[in-house]
Amino acid sequence: AQKVTQAQTEISVVEKEDVTLDCVYETRDTTYYLFWYKQPPSGELVFLIRRNSFDEQNEISGRYSWNFQKSTSSFNFTITASQVVDSAVYFCALRGNDMRFGAGTRLTVKP
Amino acid sequence: ETGVTQTPRHLVMGMTNKKSLKCEQHLGHNAMYWYKQSAKKPLELMFVYSLEERVENNSVPSRFSPECPNSSHLFLHLHTLQPEDSALYLCASSQDEGSAGNTIYFGEGSWLTVV
Questions:
Q1: For residue B80, with 0-12 CB atoms within 10 Å meaning exposed, 13-18 middle and 19 or more buried, which class applies?
Q2: What is the mean pLDDT of residues B23-37?
Q3: Beta bridge partners of residue B92, listed in sequence order
Q4: Mean pLDDT, chain B, integer
C-alpha cells in the first residue's frame, strides 16, 4: 500500500527565515512520481513540482528547492527567505498505481 | 486564467435540496476527477472519468451523482445531502488517467455547506 506522511502539521516562521517541509513516503512500486502542491486560503491546489523515481537530482526554482532522497524515501521542500505570500497549506503526493496525498503542512509566515 | 474552473465557488444548500457543481477544463485533458476535502482529513478521491467513462467510484454514497457529458466538462449532482457532507469539493484533470507521470491539475474548488 502507498502512504505519504507529512509529520509537521503546522509551522510558523518569521519572514525571511528559511523553512523545510518534510515528506516521507512508502510504496512498493518501482516506478512512481512525487509531487508538491500549494493550497492558499482560496482553495485551489497549485501544482509546484513533479519528480519521477529515477531522477534523484535536486531541483531549485527561485526560492524553492526540493531534495529527493530515495534511500530515505523522502522528498523535502525548502523555501528560502520566506515571504508572507508563502503562507498556505502544502501537500506532498505520491502517484504509482494510484494517487496518495499527505495530510498537509500549514505554513504561516509572519511579517 | 486557471486551466480548471469550477462553479459555484460557494454553495449553501438544505438537506432536501438538489444542486449541482460544475467543472470545466481548458487543458485538452482526457481524465477528470472529483475530490473531497474535509477539515482535518486527507484529500479523498471520489470519482475518476477517463474519456467520459467512469473508471473509479470510491464507495461514494449515491446522494452524490457524477456526470461527464464530454471530456471537458464534469458535474457533481447533489441530492439529500447531510451536514457532514459540508466540505471543499475539488475538480481536477490530467492528460490521461492511467499514467502515473501525468500531473493532476486542480480547480479552485467549490465550498459546500449543508444546513
A1: middle
A2: 96
A3: B33, B106
A4: 92
Write the DSSP string, A11-76. EEEETT--EEE--EEE---SS-EEEEEEE-TT-PPEEEEEEETT----EEETTEEEEEEGGGTEEE
Q: CA–CA separation, B75 vs A89, rounded Å?
A: 26
Give residue B1's pLDDT.
53
Interface list for chain B against chain A, based on CB atoms closer than 8 Å: 2, 9, 42-43, 45, 88, 90, 92, 100-101, 103-109, 111
Q: Across the A/B interface, how many CB contacts are shorter than 8 Å?
A: 45
Instruction: List CB contacts (< 8 A) between A44 and chain B.
Output: 2, 106-109
- At residue B22, the 3 state secondary structure works out as strand
User: Phi and psi (nearest 5°) for B49?
Assistant: -120, 135
Instruction: Give me the residues of A, 19-38, that contact B with CB < 8 A.
Output: 29, 31-33, 35, 37
**Maximum C-alpha span of chain A:** 43
pLDDT digits (tens, 9 = 90+) for B59-104: 899 999 999 999 999 999 999 999 999 999 999 999 988 788 889 9
Q: So what's the pLDDT on residue B79?
A: 94
Low-confidence ranges of chain A (pLDDT < 50): none
Residue corresponding to grid cell 470510491: B58
